[in-house]
Amino acid sequence: MRMRAIFREPAVGMLAVVLVSAGGSCGPQQGAKPPPVIPMPTGSVTDVEGNVYPTIKIGQQEWMVENLKTTTYNDGTPIPNVTDNSGWANLSSAAYSWVGNDVANKDVYGALYNWYAVDSMKLCPAGWSIPSSDSWSSLTDTEGGKLVAGGRMKEVGTTLWQAPNTGATDESGFSARPAGARDLTGAFVYKGQYAFWWCSDEKLLSLPATASFLHVSAVDAAAQTGQAQLPTGHAVRCWRLAN
């Protein structure tokens, strides 16, 4: 459609250009990219405390759509909630905390667990598991590879994610939120900037001991792996093979 330009002088003295169609009506621009389609959850799973998590099938896997928030192992044993920074920093046993030690974040970000809690292999509901590095790789491969999978996994917008939340489409339905982490001093860091999730793999030859994690960032569309020392607090997602 032919376009003609109408020029007008706004109050601030800068020249404004308004494009209208020759027929006098405005319509969607040709070639505009449609908004991403975010899949709806395909199921649900309930943990030992009664918390219900929506789930989504991605390839041959089924994933929780929310971070784990149980404060009890699947055998009914309570997990210690450590709020003190120095207490957290000196731990060599399992613990969890809410982001910022604020229970109001429970349903937004889930809990942050140190790797000792992950190593129990009793965090996830029965029949579900902490993903290994290979399990995460299967997910990112399904979503186009590590360079773009993070964008397809991240929740859209900048309500929780800091701008620019690069590449976020949530076309996987994974709906990643930026809980950040709890570092080796017990401080809460990177909220709004990063989402981290533990892997079940421990790098046994490292000193100090470390375990693997996957993370996505507000400033790119990648999903990348790394290593963190075991007292670090990260979020957890559980998965199983899709039925």
Reading the helices and strands in chain order gives EEEEEHEHEHHHEEEEEE
Distance between the termini: 50 Å
Query: What structural class do helix, strand and pairing data support?
Result: alpha+beta
Q: What is the strand tally?
A: 13
Can you give the helix content as a percent range?
Answer: 10-25%
Number of helices: 5
* Major sheet size, sense and barrel closure: 4 strands, antiparallel
* Cα gyration radius (Å): 22 Å
Give the number of domains.
1
| Percentage of residues in strands | 25-35%
Q: Give the strand order of the largest sheet, numbering strands 1, 2, ... along the chain.
A: 3-4-5-13
Describe the global form: globular
For the residues shown, what is the average pLDDT?
89
Summarize the structure.
With 243 residues, the chain is an alpha+beta fold. It is built from five helices and 13 strands. It is 13% helix and 27% strand.
How would you characterize this protein structure?
- The chain has 243 residues and is an alpha+beta fold.
- The chain has one domain.
- It is built from five helices and 13 strands.
- A four-stranded antiparallel β-sheet has the order 3-4-5-13. It has a three-stranded antiparallel β-sheet with strand order 10-11-12.
- Helix 4 packs across helix 5.
- The longest helix is centred in the middle third of the chain and has 10 residues.
- The N and C termini lie far apart (50 Å).
